[in-house]
Amino acid sequence: MNIGFIGLGIMGTPMAANLVRAGHTVVGYDVSTTRLDELAELGAKAAASIGEAVSQAHVVITMLPDSPQVEEVVFGEGGVLEYAPAGLLLIDMSTIRPETSRRVAQAAAVKGVHAIDAPVSGGEKGAVDGTLSIMIGGRTEDVESAREILRVLGTTIVHVGPAGAGQTVKAANQLVVGGVYALVAEAIVLLEASGVDPKAGLDVLAGGLAGSRILELKRHSMIERSFQPGFRIDLHHKDMGIATAAAREAGVALPMTALVAQLIAAARAQGHGALDHSALLKVIERINS
After folding, report:
1. Residues with catalytic annotation?
2. 199 and 238 inside one domain
3. Rounded Cα distance, 129 and 123, in Å
């Protein structure tokens, strides 16, 4: 299948590479020529423009940082909808505002393009391993058309509702992830201040009811203060803004979400925006210094 892939960052590059390995013809586009070169080395074709990535595609996947980038790539001059052939399946796997996903779906339908929102969870490791969790909003028939592609990228693939619903579920995911990181950080600070080996302590926690994917994957790197970004604080800050906005729209109070959003904002203010979101530990340590 011919797939155009737009957005080749920490997540997009390994996702596109997995599609190449699965036998698909992938034409990638990114504003960074370095990323294009990396993808070309993996067997994909590098496009010089969005139009080149889209015009011959059966499926286009976008994996972009935020709503403004998705709007520019989809709606802008020389964008996806300008070059999309009728019947194209557009899978936006970015994490963006639900209302943006709804706008994309509506505008795509006018052009005869089938659009779904399919944000992911699982971080860089999930992208590399093809084990992402994918939450999908859109029409049932369009979701079913996408499953063959999505099975290459993830192992948990769930249709959660109409256009925009995938983004709402992703917002819920991000508030949970942020909260767990904050609590793991507090556990490390407590154990170390009490003279308890944090490695032994977190190993026990990981095997009990407190166990989580975050403890499984990140406890050792957090103890070692290694914050190589798999998902940057800057992006999680954006996601918490989406979550708090969704709460306002739904008319619900999410006090823990608001607190975690403040901690993530503090991490950015302290200059940690380019670090992994597990660097929330730095904020908790600073509070206690």
Report:
1. 170
2. yes
3. 10
Rounded to 5 degrees, what are φ and ψ at 152? Answer: -75, -30
Are 57 and 191 a contacting pair, CB within 8 Å? no
Residues 189, 220, single domain; the answer is yes
* pLDDT tens by residue, the chain, 289 residues: 999 999 999 999 999 999 999 999 999 999 988 889 988 998 999 999 999 999 999 999 999 999 999 999 999 999 999 999 999 999 999 999 999 999 999 999 999 999 999 999 999 999 999 999 999 999 999 999 999 999 999 999 999 999 999 999 999 999 999 999 999 999 999 999 999 999 999 999 999 999 999 999 999 999 999 999 989 999 999 999 999 999 999 999 999 999 999 999 999 999 999 999 999 999 999 999 9
Tell me how far apart the alpha carbons of residues 116 and 101 are, in angstroms, rounded to a whole number.
Answer: 8
User: Are residue 224 and residue 243 in the same domain, yes or no?
Assistant: yes
